[in-house]
User: Fold these one by one.
Assistant:
Number 1:
Amino acid sequence: VSQPRILAIETSCDETAVALVRGRSELLASVIASQTKLHERYGGVVPEVASRNHLLKIRPLIDEVVSTAGGFSEVDVVAATRGPGLLTSLLVGYSVAKGLAIGLGRPFVGVNHLEGHLLSPFSEAGQGVTPCVGLIVSGGHSLLVKVDAVGSYTVLGRTLDDAAGEAFDKVAKLLGLPYPGGPVIDRLSAQGDPERFDLPRSMLGSGDLNFSFSGLKTAVRYLLPTLGGDFVADVCASFQEAVVDVLVKKTLRAAKLHRVNLVTVSGGVSLNTRLRARMQEATREAGLQLLLAPLHLTTDNAAMIAFTALERYLAGHTTDLSVDADPNLALC
Ligand code: KG4
Ligand code: ZN
């Protein structure tokens, strides 16, 4: 099939997502049922609650997506997120997808969730994956990856403690702002002064390409009790600037060091207005090309899993049904 239709399921954490793509350029359907509200009162994702809700949502979502395509007979390949994530959550989508592949007699592709984020910026470029340095910044991960081709990756750097999104969420909590903190801090920062507080740019001077965000969070924690009056927007803006500063500078350093002329940014934090703007500015100045994840593919979704499965399938890779889900699946 020259334009295979790929049905993909993503259940690595607390979002149940199903999508269908046709070839590289057509996203036929993409639906997401978020459980954020359910977990809010526990202050974090409860694995048992998450997996039970995946079970409730998965069938109706699959039916909805498949009906837009004209039925299961139109599906050429079935894909699902294999890891990393919560095992009990992963198993729901992964097992359902394997069952569908068996029932329909179609090939199966297990996808690494991080690879899904990593390749998401290419999904609208329509020309496949080209060498680049990719920054993945989400609630659970902060990684700099050298991409040589589909399936050929080298991790250049990662966070040594908190992920970038986690830092946004924790600082928002310190400020008494709602979860998830990233979008709220992004919005409030627009009214704040990013230079009012000089917060640490951790690891900027380290010779490597790793990140660390827990010191920044601690700096905010110690700063807050010393403040009076109106400070929330200024703290948000100063904190955000510190995170963005490190992300932009290290990403550009990686591109220069590894001699690529394309930079990509993906994951939930790539929604950040300031990060997008500063990345655009910095790559333009450095004469680099930039591909930002399309807005609707930044936070967890199944479309990025479908696109990644397609690239893998086109490169001749399918996954044997004996291969299990893996909560600690590494990118390479
Ligand atoms: O990719 P994602 O859905 O989750 C993981 O796979 O981990 O990303 C969620 C993270 C949360 O930490 C959230 O606060 C952050 O992305 N986020 C943002 C923005 N929107 C979402 N961080 C900064 N600015 C935003 N506009
Ligand atoms: Zn994710």
Number 2:
Amino acid sequence: MLYEACPTLSKFRTVFAAVPVLILSTLLSGCGGGGSGTSPAAMSSVSAPVSTLQDLTVNGDASLSSRAAAKGLIYGAATKSYLLADEQYSKALAAECGMLVPEAELKWNALRPTPDTYDFARADALLAYAESHNMLFRGHTLVWHEALPAWFQSTATPANAEQMLRSHISTVVGRYAGRIHSWDVVNEIIEPAYKGPDGLRTTSPWYQLLGERYIDIAFRAAAAADPNAILVYNEIWLDNDSPAADAKRTAVLNLIRKLKAAGTPIHALGIQAHLDEVMIGSNVEKLRAFIEQVTALGLKVMITEMDVRDRYLPADIATRDQVVANLYYNYLSAVLSNPSVIAVLTWGLSDRYTWNSTAYPRGDSLPVRPLPLDSGLNRKPAWNAIAKAFDNTSSR
Ligand code: XIL
């Protein structure tokens, strides 16, 4: 499967190729992209050139999941259960993905209408769909400071929170035991910008109710409920070459060391990889070194929520698609060089349905294009980039 280079790419080359990221960051000024309180100024220290036009041609038209599987890797995507009603879309999911992850259905606010009840209907439907199409299934997520039900704040107390957490985990993980590849046990728990002890996100209700021990409690409860699932600590904003990301990577390593020393059953780190424009042309060496340190501690790594924002890129579609694709390719080539990286998931499959449309819309109101397939479900340069990174990586 080829994608055609378009005449506007020569314009792209002229406009962007020789522009240092320092300048691009200025062009993109206003990016809040670093998350974690990273300022564009802090990120503009990157001096590598912006990615030039890359040849992302691949052989054949095999799916992403089969290219991944050929290397012992897993490729999958997030989706929402109601999107399965879009037959064209659900067919594309089945064609490209070897794994599904629910974008919302396993979060507390989806599962817990009241303190005493569970509603598994939508999660069950997604799992049934995955199983009927021979796809693996991930669980996302058992502990997060967001997506808590409205009743939570008035119901949870320091006295009942541990029991509430344990019973949620044993009920939910127990229900799907044996059918889940991996669980995101805790999600986004480090936030160095808040300057809590060890960078822990002290504003999380879970931290405030239970202190740091909620992390160990959650992992142990998950392990007891499903001894076969890979138990994952999933984290956001680990990617950039910036002081904030440096601090976050250090805090994450320290936390993993601490958990391992305490015997907490943690098996993998999930790197979300919601990439932003400031990563274009950025140096991914720090990320590669970080992954090496994580795997040296005995953990596997999964890229769990990859997408690439294009909200500050030029309107021209071919230009945008090329820049986004280059970033996919550079990022994945770097991280997949470590054989302990076992899976890559994108947060959605097609630009038809992406959280970026509402969370990170473009100022010019043009539809965003962060995913491997376009809104017509056609393969984009980003698809080629992922396919090529899989084809070029070694077997694991
Ligand atoms: C997002 C979903 O995509 C949105 O639909 C929802 O409104 C908010 O959550 N990190 C995570 C995911 O771990 O759960 C988030 O998903 C995106 C950021």
